[in-house]
Structures are given as structure tokens and as C-alpha cells.
Amino acid sequence: MERLVAGVDCSTQATKVLIVELDTGRIVASGRAGHTVAGERGARETDPREWWGALGTALAETGRAGEVDAMAVGGQQHGLVALGRDGEPRRPAMLWNDTRSAPQASELVRTVGAERLAERVGSRPVASFTVTKWAWLRSNEPDVAAATTTIRLPHDYLTERLTGEGITDRGDASGTGWWSTADGAYATDILGQPALAIDEAMLPRVLGPREPAGTVTGEAATALGIKPGVVVGPGTGDNMAAALGLGLGIGQVAISLGTSGTAFAVSECRPADPSGIVAGFADASGRFLPLACTLNCTLAVDHVAGLFGLDRDDVTASGEVVVLPWFDGERTPDLPHAAGTMVGLRHDTRPQQILMAAYEGAIASLLDAVDSIDRQAGGLDPDAPIVLLGGGARGRTWLEVVRRLSGRPVLVPRAEELVAIGAAVQAAAILTGEDPAGVAARWETNAGVIHEPLPRDDERLGRIGALRSALIETPVLAGTAD
Description:
Strand content: 15-25%
Structural class: alpha/beta
Number of strands: 24
Number of helices: 16
CATH topology of the largest domain: Nucleotidyltransferase, domain 5
CATH superfamily of the largest domain: ATPase, nucleotide binding domain
CATH class of the largest domain: Alpha Beta
Distance between the termini: 67 Å
Radius of gyration: 22 Å
């Protein structure tokens, strides 16, 4: 008789569930339910109770939820869930992409110092981090903050409703800005900052990678249509879950091509980057997950295609044209007020050249992110295939540009929904006592097609680098001057 585990991905837009066969890793069923995201002028919010309802709907859609023996939740990082004494939300959760706390992020860096923050918590917090959102809440909604007795992350909220236990894991905790990757404990000096004033008792207990969170309560089992006593893993953040699902090894780097771009690697070394480019996260295996992201990736390139009425792959060699599609500002490099920039146009320039140049500008920023990770953590194997993830990994032009600008082989895994797969890997490891890497290897989660490298296009990289340097050195060109 087959044994089944469930992996949950509670992302910004939806909750997805995969039911996976324990021995083989075969996906036997899946379900999905959407969330409502509200807000304008930088606000992005969802009522956490929607996540719980979506989990029930997604589990029911699988048709196999009642057969599951273990489960774990991977969730969007950084979100702030503020609960009262009754365990109910005091307000909608502030999501990772809620940018209202940018002033609080700047003030925290000013008062504590970028070097000290990076050394204590592994990262220089920006507006996406939980710590800045709590500072914003205390400043802008003091009555709500005063009524808050419990602070949770999105994946913590679901795990607590499953088990009745207030726990989190080191991976997701490392994205709050108040958990020390150096000490493996909450940073009491940060919690005690006047802008925060957090009692550690408000926060969940941090479990190790192999510790179970508990078992599903009778109440939760009835609500979700699963068995009481199902083993629940500690869960983790979405990026950590994806790395776990891939079985990403030391020296490998993954690039995810989505609305924004992300580069990350598993490392034995603890990063601490005061510039804020590399986030020094912990991972879900006991190691670290240095991560850097860009704001402009597939959506920005699709926008350029739309401007000219082109299909995504209707491209030709860019020639002299260089495009930096920084429509939303940029984070790598750190130019938050930058705009899209295009140079090298001639009378005979074709729209297809401009579109190719937009692809190249987006990928160059991600390769720069990879270089930043290597400088911070070291140990990346320059000859190992780049693991290419996300929606863009299935695009012909995206793949060609990554190969040409990196000069490296590229592995495109067949597996999709890697956050949910990573949560299922964790659930299986907790249930059997295996190493998660062993589960991922047995399930062959990183099996896929390896595309051989193309000669690195140093001429193109030089053109892009020259324009990037000009914008960094001359802020008025990047739109950063007052």
C-alpha cells in the first residue's frame, strides 16, 4: 500500500498542495485555491484566514487528503501576521511586497547601523522584511500593535492552526530581521530597539530542520478532511523550500526567472552583506542560503515585447542596442528610483533588436547577483550547470541568453511547483528520519535537461556593464537625483 505525504505552498496569490508518494516521489494528486490580495500605494495585504480556507479547498481538490501520513508548509517569506489573545488576526497580514515600511527600514539602518545589522541577523533589512513592517505598524497603527500578543509569519500561521503549536524554522526566521544567523537565536538587542519593543514571548519557537512541529489536531483534521495525528514538519520559507526540493548542493547556484528574478545557493559559510544586495538567509537543512534578487525580469521583458506588438521569442541580434529594463527601479544594482534605459539606437534599429537587448539586460543583472553571492559566501563552482527555474526557464530566448551571457551549461529541472515539492521532501524526511537531501535524490527532483554552454558573449557583457556603470556613477541618469 502506498504511503502519501503532502507539500503545501502558500504563496502570495494562491495555496497549492501536492500529494506525493513517499517511496518514489510520484505526484499522485494536486489542488489549488486562490487568495485575495488588496491594497494600493505600496500596500499589499491578505486576511490570513483566507490562507486557512484556501488550504482546506486545495486539500479537498486533491481527493486524497484523507490518506496523508505527514505534511509540511512552505510559505511566502517576510509577511507580518499580527494576532490577539484569542488567536485571531488583529488586521490583514502585510505581505512581503508591501513597501510602506521603506522609511522604517531606512531609520533602522540609520540607528542600528548596516554593518551591525548584517553581522547580527545576516542581512541589511529592507522594506520587504518583517522587522520593518512591525516598526511601521507600531508607528501607524499603535492600537493594533498594542493589541497584538503574537507575531507570526505566513507559514507559521498555517502550521500553528494545524498543530496548535507556535513554532517556526530557522530558514523563515532568518528573513524576519530579528533572528540571529550567527547565534541561532532571537537577537534580543534588535528586539529591544525602541522602534520595535518586541517581547520574545510574542514570537514562535524556532525548530531545527529535523524536528517535527507536532501532529494535526482533531479540530484541524475535521476542518481539513485529513486524519488526526498526521505528522507536521516545521515548514520553511518559499526560497528555502525550493532549494530543499531541488536537493541543491554546495557549489550549485539556482536562478529563478519570474516577475522578479532570484539567484540563490546553498552554502556552509554564513553571509553578512551590509550593502543589502545579498540576503544572508539560513536554509532548511542547517546551512545557509545567500540570496540576491532583481526587481525586473519576465514581466519587464514582456512589457517591452508588448510595446512593439512582438511575440516573446520574436528577437534578433541586438547589435549596438543596450537596454536595462529597470521599469520598477532596481535592487541589483541598488537603484530603487531607476527607470528603464535604452541606448545605441540607429535609423535602422529594429524592434526585435530592442527586445533581445531587454532579455540581455535582465539576465546581466541576475548574473551580477550570482557574482555578489560568490563574493559573499564563496564556494560556487564556476563550471557547474546553472539550475534554471521559474516560468522563464521554459522560454527559448531566456534559455539562450542565460547560456550565452554566462558561458555555462544550464540545467532545467522537469519538476515544477518546487516550493510544494520541498515541503513534501521535508514531510517525508520527518516521517522516515531520512536526510532531506537523500529524499530529494531518491525522488530525482532535479532530473531534467542539461543544455550545453555557448561561448560567453564578452562583447555584449561589456556594453551592458558600461551602461550599468554610467548609471551607478551618475545618479541623475538613473533617476535618483532629487
